Amino acid sequence: MNYSSGSILAVVFLFISFSLSAQVPDEYYSIARGKSGAELKIAVITDIHFLSPRLAGESEALYAFEKSTGRNVTDQHKVLDKMLGDLVKENPDILLVSGDITNHGERQSHLDFIEKLRPLQKRGTRIFVIPGNHDINIPDAKAYTDVKATPVENISKEEFAKLYRSFGYGDALKKDSASLSYLAAVDEDTWLLCFDSSRYDEYTTGSITGGRIRPQTMEWALSLLQKAKEKGIRVIGMMHHGLVEHMAYQSAFFPDYLVDDWEKNADILADAGLKVIFTGHFHSNDITLRTTPKGNTIYDIETSSLAQYPFAWRMMILDECNLSVDTRFVDKIPGHAAFEEESRQRLEMITRRVAKGKLIAMGMPLPATTMEAFTDVIVKLYMMHVRGDEKPDQEMERAIRMFASLLGDEAEIDEFTFDFPPGDINVVIPLKKGVM
């Protein structure tokens, strides 16, 4: 494969440039305004990748696992405890958990995570879950307590629904016969439409990262959205995989983090009246939107993982007109003064390793110095993307210009935008009651 300097620079901006053509509705704004009418307090967490303490002990197996993933299991438990403590104080009406609940589908991890949520549930918060690609039928679920990781019991699709019967499945208004998708009533004016987008029924030796909405599931969902429209009920959605691209060319470089046929599915759901869906999977804190040819807009609110930096979760207020989104970060945990910086460094190290691997796999004939500069650009961009509200700082601009100069080109930073609208961290999204 041959690359000119110009085409290589173009590939860089597949990673770092974001489309200038994304449509932003005229009524969108990012500064909080006054609320009106009844309010619904919503919290969102995702990609917890909870590994039961019973399955993780000081051992060679755990050390190898943590080194390969860049995670620290003890820190993860403390992050979850800190977040749940904050949630108890916030006392949200509902908590949404959008998949990848467990590390690798271990039955014990599911059981212990459920017990973690019980105090919040007993205080009156209703909790709704949906599975991710790491939750059901995982063939290689493991414990890390010995020299080598050892197999442990996983759970089936039926067991998932049974274990989480008090977390959405037990009192669902409607259940999809083709998947673990379901519809729940949040209050008399609001429904929650939960899509099961994972492919656990296809697993053989390991999990499958990619996802899809089954045709039968889409047909089922559209019938419910039609009923909601007739009744004047607003519907909010939840799914593990992304429904809308969060970065330019995401479908080309990271297709497994979007549902199959994402453009078609996003347009269908938006035109049917769904305006907001909460997702995870990509471990990034990002909000994006898509406007259909018919002029209907849907927002994909993706929340980053509680298993890695920046350890984000969402607290939101839904009223008759707006969805106010406030992102919270767990940046301190007991007994670990350097927690945030060490976590950031671990993620940066893993990202650098993955980026180099991708570039080598692409077969780019780059000199070592240029390859290093290219990798640096990708790593810096990703570290901004996982936190949200990407704005290139001087260090990032220098990295881009340095890489461009090595190719004999010039990078015009002002010609590129680094983040799809709207904002990602603190934002108010306008909604109209009755048409969600």
CATH architecture: 4-Layer Sandwich
CATH topology: Purple Acid Phosphatase, chain A, domain 2
Integer-rounded radius of gyration: 22 Å
What is the number of independent domains? 1
Low-confidence runs: 1-14, 16-37
CATH class: Alpha Beta
- What amount of the residues lies in strands? 15-25%
Specify the helix fraction band: 25-40%
Order of helix and strand elements from N to C terminus: HEHHEHEEEHHEEEHEHHEEEEEHHHE
Strands, count? 15
Q: Please tell me what the overall shape is.
A: globular
Q: What's the overall average pLDDT, rounded? A: 87
> What structural class do the secondary elements suggest?
alpha/beta
Spatially, the strands of the biggest sheet line up as 6-7-8-9-10-12-11
Tell me the distance between the termini: 48 Å
Query: How many H/I helices?
Result: 12
Largest sheet: 7 strands, mixed
User: Quick one: CATH superfamily?
Assistant: Metallo-dependent phosphatases
Question: What's the topology here?
Answer:
Elements: H1 5-16, E1 40-45, H2 60-69, H3 73-90, E2 94-97, H4 107-122, E3 126-129, E4 142-143, E5 150-151, H5 157-163, H6 165-169, E6 174-175, E7 182-187, E8 190-195, H7 215-231, E9 234-239, H8 250-253, H9 262-271, E10 276-279, E11 286-291, E12 297-302, E13 312-318, E14 322-329, H10 339-361, H11 368-387, H12 394-406, E15 426-430
Parallel strand pairs: 1-2, 2-3, 8-9, 9-10, 10-12
Antiparallel strand pairs: 1-13, 4-5, 6-7, 7-8, 11-12, 13-14, 14-15
Helix pairs in contact: 3-4, 10-11, 11-12
